[in-house]
Amino acid sequence: MTTDHPQDAPTARVLEPGMFTTVQDMGRPGHGSIGVPPSGACDTTSLRVANRLLHNDDGAGALECTLLGPVLRFTRDAVVCLTGAVCPKATVGEGERARPLAACVPHRVLAGERVAIGGLATGARAYLAIDAGFDLPPVLGSVATLASARLGGHRGRALRAGDDLPLAPPSPRPPREPSEPIAPWLTRSLARRTLRVTPALHADLFDNDAMRTLTSEALTVADQSDRVGVRLRGPSLRSTLPTGSLESEGAITGAIQVPHDAPPIILGVDRPTTGGYPVLACVIAADLPILAALRPRDTVRFALVTRRVARELHRAHERELDAHLPPAGTSQ
Amino acid sequence: MTRVRLVWSSERSVHLMVPAEGDASPGLRVARVAAALRSARIPGVLDLTPASTTIQIELDPHAPDPEAVANRSLTIAERALAANARAAPTREISVPVCYDADLGPDLASLAADAGMHPKEAAKRHASDAYAVRFLGFSPGFAYLDGLAPELHAPRLGTPRTRVPAGSVGIAGSRTGIYPQATPGGWRLIGATPLRVFDASRERPSLFEPGDRVRFHAVTRAAFDEIAAEQGRRDDD
User: Is pLDDT of B234 > 50?
Assistant: First the structure.
């Protein structure tokens, strides 16, 4: 696999890969008919905050870290910004020059310096954006990684020790100083552990108890949760359908699938585009960043809202983000 | 006139239910309606996912009036359904398959269950025309209709943890090809040397909804030769 990136061009060398670190952007929606899921950042709010603080476009590629972040060494001066989950041990530099990498603040990193993200304390996903982003070839219009199909990102897979991530030329634009700190707003909006849902395609195929159970009882996030789906443990939510009686249907990110003999799965951004299990409810767009923040063994609750309320909540969320930090290219 | 039914499946998605008409399966009509929706490039539509009898339309949550986008999609779908008679010609795709036992480890047992010799089962698989009903599971994975009833077979009880890319499988009444090396539970009867999905091509997916597909049996030598021409996947 080759790129146009010259041998001596600046890179971020991966010293330690972290648990599952991938390049992600705003994804590649629009290829559902050929079986390609959107991928992209699980939490597009945190991704956009990181990119906007660096004056990057919203859709610039950044590193999505999962539970344990990577250790990198840059070969050129760079400005980085860390958002999403709280990373108490994140640092720039080593030894006496080590300084904490505070969230939602652009940090200058000198050539040869280390950036270590460490463990994520609350939340499951953190985003490390770099000024001007990575120099990676877009695949179907996006640098998002879909590891199951070895598509996009850096060689279509999660980072490994020894990888060299090619960096784009540094941005001439200085990082931004938000008028008020955005970290408290972001942390607060990711801390909620109630997901709002609307009824989904097969809600009518469940008896009333299923929706009542989903919205009244606490469920637990199972260990086998990833970008394909968040698996839940908890009370049974059986549909009234015989096994295997449904034809496959398209299902979007946030759809809560209920297999017959297995716990429910909330579909993630790397989901298959079609599925044959009944879908009881769907997490609203405004709460997808919270879905991204769920850690194994977290307790999660669900609350039913109408489509109209779901749209209002999404608009309100977007308004708040833009009020804190308008997209790059807009005047401040 | 049979109508397309619109069902909201979240605040940002609808499913269009394409009705069956007479004895015709809705399968290919779903593909045609989806193609009409795609070429209409309706502002506010983020993604379209045709499936067996439905089309999912994912709406851009930033669209100012999602209900209007959904209704416009419905209008275009109904118009496309009514214009069914003047449907675009379907493409026919020819797919070489080697049915050797190492590439199709389930062919012998599947044939035995059908009371056939493996060669006979392979010949049967390669003699029919299939239709791409829809794609899903993974990029480029096409669910093909038209499998001879004697070849119908349930999925494996325990899926394989890794099915090689290009493997041709059977599950229930459908056949299909694994585009990437993935876990999978279909019964494997052979393999194609073609690259079923390649994002660098202008048409990344060999198959699109509505295509007709024919398999033709090739020897192991021909399989290896075509595979070499296609270039091996970089499996680093």
Answer: no
